[in-house]
Amino acid sequence: MDLKFLKGVGEKRAEAFSKIGINSPEDFLNFIPRAYLKKISIREIPANLNENVIVSGKVIDLEHPRKSNHPYRIILKDNTGTVSIPLFGASEFRSRQFRLNDSFIFWIKTDRDNFSSVPKISYRDHLKINESEINDTEFMKFRLIPVYELSGILKKTWIKPLLLSKIVFNAFSALLRSNPDYIEETLPEDILKRYKLSGKKEAVLRINFPVEFPDIEFSRKRLSFEELFYLELILALKKKSLQNEKKGIKFDNDIHAITEKFKSVLQFELTASQKKVMNEIYLDMKSDKCMNRLLQGDVGSGKTIVAVFSMLIAIENGYQAAFMCPTEMLAGQHFRTISELLKPLDIKVELLVGGQKKKIREGILADIRSGKTDLIIGTHALFQESVEYRNIGFVVIDEQHKFGVMQRAKLKEKGINPDVLVMTATPIPRTLSMTYYGDLDVSVIDELPKNRIPVITALRSESDKPGINSFIRKEIKKGRQVYIIFPIIDESEKLDLKSAEENFSILKRQVFPDLKVGMVHGRMLWYEKDEETEKFRKGELDILVSTTVIEVGIDIPNASVMIIEEAQRFGLSQLHQLRGRVGRGADQSYCILVAKDLSEDSSRRLEILCKTNDGFKIAEADMAIRGPGEFFGIRQSGMLNFSCTDLNKDRDIVETAREIAFKIIDEDPQLRKKEHIRIKKAFLKNYKDSLYLTDIA
What we know:
The chain is an alpha/beta fold and 697 residues long. The protein is built from 24 helices and 20 strands. Helix 8 packs across helix 9 (213-244).
C-alpha cells in the first residue's frame, strides 16, 4: 500500500515521511513512542503541577477574547463535565478552526493556580474527530495515547503529535487487517519461554498502544532483547568470520632483541599495566591468526608507546606499519613524537595527510610502494586508492570511534590480513564496550605513569573571571603555559556560545596585551594549526586559544592550566579529554570549568568532573546522562541506532543476549539448525547491511 493512501497522510505528508525513511505503513512498525499521555474524563483533570493529559468531547461554546492579549476559549463537554481550554492567536482563524458541536481530542497541560482551586489549563495540541469516534473506535478506547518524535520536516506539513498517533494507529490497523500475522516472530520459542518474554506482535502493539503503564516497560524490554540479541549475533558472526579467514602474519623474530632495542630509546620506565598489555598484543602477533584488538586507556596512560612497540615488532619482522589518526593535527603530533623516538633505530617514518604538495606526496607514495618507508603515519589518506603498500603487516587506528566501519575495513584491505590494533582514550563503559566492540579482544591500561600529579579541577562562574585571569598570570609568571577553550569559532553560529575568534581578539588586545597569545581552530588548514601548536610547544606562546580541535593527542608538558569556557555545553567525556591536555609534566596542573546559568542537572554533571580524575567513572556517568548514541559521536557507525534499548537500564539484557548469541554462532555459525531457522530468516530480512561482515547466505 502506498503511504499517501493511508488515512490522514496524503501526497504532501507522504513526501515528508519519505525524507525520514518512512515510505510505507510497514515502516511504522519501528516507530517507537517517546512518551505517553493518559486519556481521562474532564472530571478527572488533575490540579497537580505539570501534568500532561488527553481529554475529548464536544465543543459547546466559543468565547472570543475581550482584549487582544487574552486567549480565545474553547468550552469542551463530555459526559462528566466541562472544561475551558485557552488558545492564543487570531480569533478569525480560531473561529474557522473550531465550530460548535464539533468533536475534538485535546492534549492539555495542567498547572496549579495559586489563587484558585481550579487548575490552570495550557493548550498543547488537538485533533478533530467524528462524534462517533469518541467512544466507538479502537483508537479512542486506549487510555494511553502515544507521542512520537516529530522532525522539522513533518512539522512543516502540519502533522502534529495527536494526528501522528492517529496515522500510526491507522497504519497498524491497515497492516493487520490485510494479514493478522504480518508481525512475524523473530526469537525462538525456547528463548521466549526461558526469559519470560512476550511475542513480537504483542510487544510491538503494546508499546505503541498500551492498555496500562506496566505494558510499556514489559514490551520495551522484549524489543530491547531483540535489538541486543541481533547486534550481538552480528558481532559473534563477525568474530567467527575473522577467526576463520585466511591465516594472518606470524611475527616470530626474537622478541627479546626487539624489546632491548625498544628499551634503549625509552627515557622512562613502563608501567606494569603497559607491560601486561604489550604481552597480550605480542601473544596475538606471534600466532598465525589475525589480531583484532581494542586498546583502552585513560588520557595520558601511555597507549601510543604500546602502539609503537607493537609496530616495531612488525617492522623488525620485515613488514610495514601504518598509524591512522582522525585529524591532521594529531597525525602531525604523532609523526614528530614517534620519528624522534625511533631515530636512533634507523627506522624511516613518513607523514601522509591531505593537502601535501604534489611533488612531496609523490615522493612519499613512491617510498611506501617500494618499501623504503617502514612506518606511515596519517589520516584517512592512508587508505586512498593511490596509496600502495609493499607489505603492510600491522595497522594502528587511533581514536577509532571517529572512523566508520568501512574506513577501517578499507585500510585493512591494503595488506594481506594485517594485524589490527584500535585505540581509544575515551574509557568505555562495559555495556557499551560489549555492544560496540563485542567482536574485538580488549586490552586495558588501567594505571597512569608513576609520579603523575592529579589535575585539580574547579567549577567557576562568569563573576570569577578577574580571579581566573589573575591566576593565569601567576602561572605564566612561573614559566607555565595556558590553554583557553571555546566551543565555537565565530558569531555566525546561532547558539549563544562564546566565539573563539572574538574572544581571542579581546584576550590578545585587552586582557593579556603584554602576553603572547595564539589560536587554533578547525577551519584552519592542518599545517597552520601545526605551526601554531609548534610555537606553543617551543614556548613562543604563553596562551593558546582553541576550540575542541586540541581534544586529543596534544602533549605539551609545560602547559599547566586549562580554562574551558561554556563548560556546560560539553559532554563529560569530552571535558575529560580536554582536561587530559594538562597534567603531563612534573608540576601541579589545573582545569577551570567556567559556566553560566547552570541548571541543577548541569551543576551535578560538572561536579562529577571536579570530584574524580577516573575516566571510567566519568564515562559511566556521561553515558547515563547523554545515552550511548551521543557518548562520543558513534551514531555514524550505524550500530547503535536502538529504538528501544537503554544501555543504562538494560545491562543484564546485554549480558544475556551476548551469551546466547555467541553460544549459537559457536555451535552453528551458518544458522543451519532447525531451531535457528527463525533467527536466520529474521537476520537475512532485517540485517542485510551487515552481511558483508559474515559468512551467512
